[in-house]
């Protein structure tokens, strides 16, 4: 049985303030939870409507009722289990060949999708501006479909970081160089900007080359592509020569 | 003022059955509504909280209160105006160079995103299996961001259609030919399948070549990409040589 206190703490984990206070975040669904023991993430508590299906050697698993799961789940249709995990103490920037930089992405679905894309293309690291949506937001974790386990997501001051970064930095906007005519080096960063405002001017100053997906449709009313879709198409093009 | 009868009819338009009964569908938001007079779509009624902002020479515009708009909107955060439009009587298959075929896509967001991609890449037609989600579903219309105005979406029996189609047909799955090593002819169709089950066997039999986006990440747990993201990456690659 879940106590009112436990329910209250878990429900609070949709807010960054409380995730930071308790150093905890949630992972929902057996499929992703089963990958946790092979990762660096520590499970502090496990709640499941059917612990047998989890098949985890973990003394912390609590059997709960579907009505209780509904209270602590952030999904419209709750799955089978919820794991409460510890947020790692420190995020370290690693050396990578190709990395993604996000400048003020706000939508949890976009961040989750971009993490999933990074995982697909084997990109090991995403560096985020401090105002980018938090990776431990339950909607982000869910949208990654488990890919957050395999991509290093780090938050930092982009201006200082880029000032000291020694490799080419590509930015994406509406009137950069055609991606199909751009050659990408072995080691570089690619920046995607905020959904509404794009890359902010202070970041843009530190970019070596702006690039663009050309629009083949002739109608000027056509909306520009969503940031995560742009990221997918651009990464697809970058990896066409790998 | 909206009558209870009008509210009831408009609310029923989220169901295909009622859209077909009344031959009507909804378009929400000034931005897209303003494009309607330049399209083949006929507006039957217009409801707006601020008709002046619409700036349309249309006698059918009714001023309504925000509370009324909320009742007839399918959006979580209703916009400014709603147009009730007539569903065109007949959909005709046109001759195109590159076209998309959808085999049982169920998610309105995926269909809307694929229509938006088609518009971006200048693809004029999407041919859907009869069981693909209805283009006039309010969630599809919204996800297209107006692109439904510029892409011909037709529903048909794919088996009969493909049997008589004379050009190459590419299909997408997890173990086809690498898209980066595939040459695309001047005229062809590309098929994307259902979110869970992919392309059905009876359609697959009529495909000339299966293609795949190679996964560069080494981890086998990585989820395959969502169908609309795959469509974006594959179209991005197809157009890299255009």
From TrEMBL, chains A, B:
Q: What family does the database annotate?
A: Belongs to the class IV-like SAM-binding methyltransferase superfamily. RNA methyltransferase TrmH family.
Under the heading Pfam families, the entry gives:
MRM3-like_sub_bind, SpoU_methylase
- Which is an annotated GO molecular function term of this record? RNA methyltransferase activity
Where do the MRM3-like substrate binding domain residues begin and end? 6-83
Ligase: present as a keyword of the record?
no
Which GO terms are recorded in the biological process aspect for this UniProt protein? methylation; RNA processing
In Swiss-Prot or TrEMBL terms, this protein is called RNA methyltransferase
CDD domains for the chain: SpoU-like_RNA-MTase
Keyword Transferase applies = yes
